[in-house]
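#structure-requests
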Amino acid sequence: MASCDNKISDGALPEGDWTLVGVVGIRDEVRPESITAIAEVQNAGVQVVMITGDRKDTAVAIAKEAGLLNTQDAVVLTSDELAQLSDEDIKQKLKNIRVVARALPSDKSRLVRIAQELNLVVGMTGDGVNDSPALKKADVGFAMGGGSEVAKEASEIVILDDNFSSIDRAILYGRTIFNSVRKFIIFQLTINVAAVLISFVSPLLGMENPLSITQILWVNLVMDTLAAMAFGGEPALKRFMQEKPKKRDESVVNGYMWQSILTGSLLTFGLSLFFILSPFAKTFFRPDVDNKYLLTGYFTFFIFISVFNAFNARTEKLNLFDHIAANKGFLQILAIIVIVQILMTYFGGVVLRCFGLNLREWAFVLGIAILIIPIDLLRKAIPGSRLRHEEKVLTRYGVK
């Protein structure tokens, strides 16, 4: 080997025999969990675009490793190329854009604005002060935990571990909350509609409302506070990530929910009329002038049919116990409702207009109330009427 005294000048190696010992390269590895998270987010219908200040070749290499360039029509642009395109041109290409290299902060803001003009819901990540306008403008801003305070203030969510998998989890839990809200609405509106119908029809039939004011207060407590706690603990299921994304203007109450609400409320209303007016139903209760045992039974029936319908509302599947062990609070709250209702039945007295039931009366009440379960299962089993969320996947990503 040549003497080390020979020095490099003008970028040329010194004369002599040299031996290549090695080449050193430095790169930031893509986190393995991020590759998985990007695939899951794409399967959830979310378009992921990498906007970076790196050179185009570097950005393309990272995007390929991360799984962003997985289609032949994927578009890679530089900031200069993006600037040469009109807004209308970008709108035409937007669904295929995967990488924007040598990007400026203004490119982020422009892409957010154009996507929102197409009525798309936009999430944007960033960590610098210059990213704050885009983070603020986006529907959901994701600031990196190691970023500037300005970026964090402009964002709705701060990713403390600076990992894309956290965004994946945020989407999953967001969809879980949305589905839980829908389940609660099904449960609540079913009781509401049934209670309103029976309260409206009763005077027309020349009879007193079968539910007293104090009983309606207990129904409202079951319908609102306790139900919200029960459905609020629903687990985050991976199948939620295979649902189609919700449109910005999509109604919270969809067709499946209306089917469930109308089926449950009309059935409850019909059974209520049968319970109160049918001579056959009255044969199961001890006779008395004021029908106090019949009305006690009806109040208990109304609460129990609501409890049974809670199992219908919490899942769109035929298996009513689907992942129910992951929401132990649901079973505990329903158990509390049942226990309190039984105590009210025997100890409510004149205040709650409850005077106890015997075994024959209990058998009739529970037998009528539980009918809502098989009826709703039949509704779910009818082809085309049941929206199975785990099957609502995006074929564009090949998810089956």
